[in-house]
Design brief:
Layout lengths: L4 H13 L1 E4 L2 E4 L28 H7 L4 E4 L22 H12 L3 E7 L7 H14 L3 E5 L9 H14 L8
Parallel strand pairs: 3-4, 4-5
Antiparallel strand pairs: 1-2
Helix pairs in contact: 4-5
Length: 175
């Protein structure tokens, strides 16, 4: 039994570890297994979402007990994607929908990451990016200020993002 979908993957691994050889025949060792994560969020993220769809990538994540990923696609000519969708990037939705479906199929939580270190006049673009990610079905909103941009009135922007999150039913542990 498992409390969450990815727990089935972990249980399958534990079951496989319990198979042994006895006189040339496989047998299942008796055991009681209780397993839970000591760290809530375990991830490795790409700054190009298409990398998640390289065959075997998300399966390897699941096998390694990584339980979340981040949609943070950047413009390929520079590394700004490491900080989230920038206001000058486009979220077309098709790639993101595929990544979301594949991650959710493996019981993974998906954060939508937007680069929030922007000038105050660009706050509406940040909000629009979060709205698009919400409409696509991300599980959480990642407010990224660890970026090379100029932070305008950050408290005002954060307040707007929190209001948007609450409007869409995102609890504090999903922001």
């Amino acid at each position: 039994g498992a409390g969450v979908p990815r727990g089935v993957i972990y249980g399958q691994e534990a079951l496989t570890w319990l198979i042994a050889d006895r006189d040339g025949k496989p047998f299942l060792r008796e055991a009681a297994v209780r397993d839970h994560a000591g760290i809530q969020w375990r991830s490795f993220s790409w700054n190009q979402n298409k990398q998640y769809l390289v065959p075997g990538t998300l399966d390897a994540y699941a096998d390694a007990r990584l339980n979340c990923i981040e949609l943070r696609d950047g413009i390929e000519k520079h590394m700004y994607g490491q900080f989230g969708y920038t206001v000058d990037s486009e979220i077309n939705g098709e790639l993101e929908k595929t990544v979301l479906a594949e991650a959710h199929r493996r019981g993974m939580f998906v954060w939508g990451v937007v680069c929030c270190g922007v000038k105050s006049e660009e706050n509406d673009k940040v909000i629009a990016h979060f709205e698009k990610l919400i409409s696509l079905g991300v599980d959480g909103l990642y407010i990224s200020f660890d970026d090379p941009g100029i932070a305008g009135d950050a408290p005002v922007l954060v307040k707007r993002i929190l209001e948007l999150a609450r409007k869409h039913g995102y609890d504090d542990d999903r922001i």
